[in-house]
Amino acid sequence: MKINTKCLHAGYTPKNGEPRVLPITQSTTFKYESSEEMGKLFDLEAEGYFYTRLQNPTNDAVAAKIAALEGGVAAVLTSSGQAASFYSVFNICHAGDHVVASAAIYGGTFNLFSVTMKKLGIDFTFVNPDSTEEELNAAFKENTKVVFAETLSNPSLNILDIELFANVAHAHGVPLIVDNTFPTPINCRPFEFGADIVTHSTTKYMDGHATQVGGVIVDSGNFDWTASDKYPGLTTPDESYHGVIYTERFGKGAYITKCVTQLMRDLGSIPSPHNAFLLNLGLETLFLRVPRHCENALKVAKFLEANENVTWVNYPGLEGNKYYSLAQKYMPDGTSGVVSFGIKGGREAATRFMDSLKLATIATHVADCRTCVLHPASTTHRQLTSQQLEEAGVAEDLIRFSVGLEDADDIIADIAQAIEASQM
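Above: the chain's sequence. Below: its structure in token form.
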């Protein structure tokens, strides 16, 4: 099936007389006829459902759909995009390990890595997403376990050279994890360029309607965890499951199985089945919505580029953009609906601009069907120092404008009057 069809049909195939629409299995527990059957589930010797903190039919169907969209072998839903970022790294890292990460990532992810996970004993080196091969190589240490980056960074809109980062990671015997939230699998296919694991905040375009908070981790199944002794959690016995070795028992499904049976068991960041149901409704129209977001965003970006009161515009779909060539390689059908720009008057003018908008909403959100706007330096990235803001590509005057599905002329008219008001 092509990706448009997968948005509608992957993950759930009803049998004769079963619901046409994916049902919500709103139950914590599942009945079995014998203790022996239940025991086999706890020992990972049989497949089935016994407690929703680990697995649920609704959640699993939606995870399977996203895995199909990304071209992966398996996936797991999480309760937020933050949880997906945390689990994706923590599943293969522990105290004493090191991670190479792009500096141009969402502010919440930066804090997760540089503060919270640092407290867990995991060290991070943040690199420029535009680093050369030599600069990337210099960031690695003997205890480096993984590389993490965003395919299209939030909010700086840097496009990652996925092949370069993947090749360097693999040369050091470690996998590349990429957050593909902004482009979605409609616009970018990271596994085809060497990425090993993909994460998403499903709160964004995948949901598309601001109705649920969620995340997902998808494994390509391509990375060989047994090629070195770097990943004992996957390649040596797990005594909490009677000595199971995930790579031996589950093959290409080892990474996701460990994430579900160990991390979800112990930390429990699962979405509710109802949230998964709402996410699935969004996924069914993803292939229709994403192109419209990109179409509207390009019109907005061109308008901003021609406005005398706009000091700079960053949208990779513009031919003069520094990432235009990478966009043509990795996201030829469009990047996302997010545009960043600055206006004359700096930070104060940016505040007046946002306060003057009538159609667009000031919201701590992005990638919604409704247009929304935010000033990252004073909100999502306010914990970062001036140097960290600069390294993340977040200018003090940066306005993150998430272009929605309204008529482009209405969005542009709203921007025009707000810019005019900002200059008074």
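The CA atoms of residues 208 and 368 lie 5 Å apart.
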